[in-house]
Amino acid sequence: MGTPRREGVDVFDRDARAHEGYLYTHTDRLSCRLATGRTSDIILETGAMRDRSVLDIACGDAFYTVRFWDRGKLRRLVAGDAAINAVAVAARNSGSRPIRFMVSDAHCLPFKDGSFDVVLLQSVLHHDHDPAQMIQEAFRIAPRVIIHEPNGNNPGLKVIEKTSRYHLEHHEKSYSMRRMRHWIKDAGGSVQYVKTAGFVPMFCPDWLAKAMKLMEPAVEWTPGVRSIACAVYVMVGVRG
User: What gap in Å lies between CA 99 and CA 161, rounded to an integer?
Assistant: First the structure.
């Protein structure tokens, strides 16, 4: 197993140690609960993990990992992360579930080619120094890759990335769907499924979260609007 690269990792290690989880998962804030709930739903709605062996490359504190196991009917689940403290929290949070956790470098994974049916890259590429290479490594491990990322087409998100202390400290970036398609193609894959979703931003006041949640279905449904207003997107890429 390679030594995990530390760029962008230490801040998540500190979060996990200080809060027994991440700031947006270990909280009662309404906006975070609404945003994380929508993310869980849209990834599960792809159906790409059902009855398959899955490697969750950046499991963090296992907030999502546990939900995917409980709701997704996965056959096998291995979860890794470069943040050592987060992996320790993840193992505790998983309880007696048969999920294997490990500390790992997502750019150099300790698995043979084709070891899994699916690799999940959830909200990790926008923190990484070389997202294109991480996608290539994911396609080495599995023929199917699920990618979940902030919507880089959203102008409001670009402003938040430049002004929010949290986003700056956590090295937040975002990439357009066009660029993500390009990286998937370069890795030898093609996009089989794509969906933009979500409208509630993390850490916003409750009144705003409630208002934006009411607007969310219309935003997700309206062509043109959804491509620039939705908060996140999910893609499923297939090798070959």
Answer: 33
Whether the Cβ atoms of residue 160 and residue 240 lie closer than 8 Å to each other: no
Residue type (1 letter), 229? A
Max CA separation in the chain (angstroms): 49
| Token reading at 150 | 């902030």
Instruction: Give the alpha-carbon dihedral of 205, 206, 209, 214, to 10 degrees.
Output: -150
- Tokens 């890429």 belong to residue: 237
pLDDT digits (tens, 9 = 90+) for 110-154: 999 999 999 999 999 998 889 999 999 999 999 999 999 999 999
Say if pTM beats, i.e. exceeds, 0.90: yes
The answer to whether the CB of 78 falls within 8 A of the CB of 94 is: no
Reduce the DSSP state of residue 89 to 3 states and report it.
Answer: helix
pLDDT in tens, 97-112: 999 999 999 999 999 9
Strand order in the sheet with 100-103: 100-103, 76-81, 53-56, 118-122, 144-150, 232-239, 189-197
- Do the beta carbons of residue 161 and residue 167 sit within 8 Å? yes
Pairing of strands 189-197, 232-239: antiparallel
Q: Name the E strands within the chain.
A: 53-56, 76-81, 100-103, 118-122, 144-150, 189-197, 232-239
Residue 197 contacts residue 231 (beta carbons within 8 Å) = yes
Mean pLDDT over the full length of the chain: 91
DSSP code of 125?
Answer: G
